[in-house]
Amino acid sequence: MSQYYAFYSETVEYTYYFFKTSNGFIYEVSFRPTPYLFETSYPFAENVFESVIKVIEKSSKTLVPFDKKVKRTIAEIFYHFFSDKQRIIVYICDTADTRHRARARKFGAWFEEFKHGQFVKVDATIDDYSDIVYLNSLILHTDNLHFVEIIDAFRKVTGGYSEDK
Predict the structure, then answer these.
(1) Inter-residue contact 21 to 61 (CB < 8 Å)
(2) What is the pLDDT of residue 98?
(3) Is 70:27 a contact under the CB 8 Å cutoff?
(4) Distance CA 136, CA 108 (A)
(5) Is the dihedral of CA 144, 146, 152, 158 positive or negative?
(6) Which pLDDT does position 104 carry in this prediction?
(7) Less packed terminus of the chain by CB within 10 Å, N or C?
(8) Out of 40-44, 52-56, 99-103, which region has the weakest mean confidence (pLDDT)?
(9) Where are the domains of the chain?
(10) Contact by Cβ (8 Å): 38, 153
(11) Cβ–Cβ under 8 Å, residues 139 and 88
């Protein structure tokens, strides 16, 4: 029995991965090119992607139940996406429902469980004029050719960082 759900990918404008849970929930994990986050003069700008994880179809249940295969499936999708070690992911926790801190904690715990010494996550916060705090993470492979330069550029964009993991 697999420890994660089967998934498939599509690349149209973005790269999308989809999987369906045993409870009937369908997840979408997308990776959207975002080279504009950093100056185009950086040699790694074309390898920057924003990641979005969302439930796109719910079963009759209103709340998404705990399912340990979901985090394992998302980890497998990230491993698959990072088969190109030069890719960089920026993850921004959605603030729309004010649950962004809970999302950041959950994603951080998942990252720690599945990083296997291959990945680094740098966290940052950005405060806007309306007192909303945006929680951001940069994820990159330890073998990325521009490792230090990427982290420095992320610090410049976010105005600093709170923690390296």
Answers:
(1) no
(2) 67
(3) yes
(4) 11
(5) negative
(6) 76
(7) N
(8) 99-103
(9) 7-164
(10) yes
(11) yes
Q: How far is CA 160 from the centre of its chain?
A: 19
Nearest to 97 by CA among 130, 140, 132: 132
Q: Which residue pairs, CB below 8 angstroms and at least 24 apart, start in 144-147? A: 144/44, 144/85, 144/86, 144/88, 145/44, 145/86, 146/42, 146/43, 146/44, 146/86, 147/120
Structure tokens of 142? 């330890």
Q: How far is CA 137 from CA 10, 66, 74, 146, 163, in A?
A: 24, 24, 16, 17, 10
The yes/no answer on whether domain 7-164 falls in CATH 3.40.630 is yes
**Beta carbons of 110 and 158 less than 8 angstroms apart:** no
Q: Is pTM beyond 0.70 here? A: yes
Residue partners of 10: CB distance under 8 A and separation at least 6:
16, 18
